[in-house]
What we know:
Layout: E1 3-9, E2 14-19, H1 26-33, E3 44-50, H2 62-66, H3 68-80, E4 84-91, H4 96-99, H5 103-108, E5 114-117, E6 120-123, H6 127-133, E7 139-146, H7 153-158, H8 163-179, H9 183-193, H10 195-209
Amino acid sequence: MSYFKYIDNGKGPTKLFLGGVHGNEGKTSIKFIKSLKLDDLSCGQFYFYNFDKTEYISTIKKEFYESELGQKILNLINYFEPDFYTELHCYNLKNYDKLTSMERYKKTGVPPLIPAGNHVLVSSVSPLIRMTYFSTDTVCKTLEFPCIEKLTPEIMEKFNFDEKSATERYMDLLRLITKCETRADFENAMMEKYKSQVQLAMDYAKKVFGEDFPPY
């Protein structure tokens, strides 16, 4: 699953995409990274990394960023200083309700993930790095798709999961990130297509980062 691709698409923003951030997520994220075409990209510099399987440590725990992969990710962020930073994650569909419940905020201080439709979830990135390694102008997004390796027929039926529709929704969000050239472009595109999600993200950002901090 280890994968790297650099695309020089001329003058424009620097965009860093990371898959396989922890556990075996790279098995799912590589599918989306490799689905992107040149026509899906804005002008700018694109860096795609998909990592091999590692021990699963949550990114909302400081131990993750003390790990070998966590340190590598921080080094990549510091080196590229991206204008757009995106983590491609996956989750166990069994945990959908847990991940989207406000109980997550009560227990961890981190807001729940936001449903974007078709079992795709979105959020900002870990609060442990959002304010420390990025400026407020950086667009930071986490995209979550149900882990492919855990999608048994029984689970898919129980949760009424349609993989095709979920894939289309995930790719739609990913392409908004790859196509938009500026934060303003991205904000406008998100507000037009995902208004309720943006409003919820704004509320969560206020809780964690303060009144004037952007939701992504």
